[in-house]
Design goal:
192 residues, alpha/beta, Rossmann fold
Length: 192
């Protein structure tokens, strides 16, 4: 796990790095850390990197495979929020404005208009009783992918589960199976 610039705990400059630029700068530090770790450790296979995210993390997992397919080869989206203009949880504090005041910032942060760039397989999980990120967000994502004739995804609903769907053991089993299927089994590597 990498807490790049934009996360709390290290001062205002670090925390405010992504302020008013939601979705435009957050992945830089993650990519840099992955590249540095891969250069240092032979057991890291940089051709087999998957990304998983829950809620806003699901937004960034999808963003990762859309914007950096050379790094991220598969993505797991768990109860993902896709386009900030429709986020149910308040995002104005991170965007710096309301959608009516800065529509361009929200446009830049949206993922749906860029789905035509998707090349990686994705697994989508969502609980039908989610009241933080409504399952309709995933329905809309699935419909948009189908309209683009994109078929390299799987959508799994968790009946009567709320936003914390990882409490269901099937969630983790699906996640592990997906990454093994899409990225392959790890290679045996000599101890460093």
């Amino acid at each position: 796990m990498i807490d790049g610039r934009g996360t709390p705990g290290r001062g205002a400059g670090f925390r405010n790095f992504s302020y008013a630029n939601f979705g435009q700068v957050e992945l830089q530090d993650h990519i840099s850390a992955i590249q540095q770790l891969a250069a240092k450790h032979s057991f890291i296979d940089s051709d087999r990197i998957g990304v998983s995210g829950h809620s806003w993390g699901g937004h960034f997992a999808l963003r990762a495979v859309l914007e950096h397919p050379e790094i991220y080869k598969a993505a797991h989206l768990s109860a993902a929020a896709i386009d900030p203009v429709s986020f149910r949880v308040a995002i104005e504090a991170y965007m710096g404005c309301l959608p009516t005041d800065c529509p361009e910032a929200y446009r830049k942060a949206a993922l749906t208009p860029h789905l035509d760039k998707l090349k990686a397989p994705i697994l989508i999980h969502h609980g039908t009783a989610d009241d933080d990120v409504p399952i309709e967000d995933s329905y809309e994502l699935v419909e948009a992918l189908q309209n683009l004739n994109y078929r390299d995804f799987e959508f799994i609903e968790f009946e009567a589960m709320d936003h914390i769907i990882m409490r269901n053991p099937k969630w983790e089993q699906d996640l592990i199976h997906f990454f093994k299927k899409e990225l392959g089994e790890p290679k045996a590597v000599a101890e460093n």
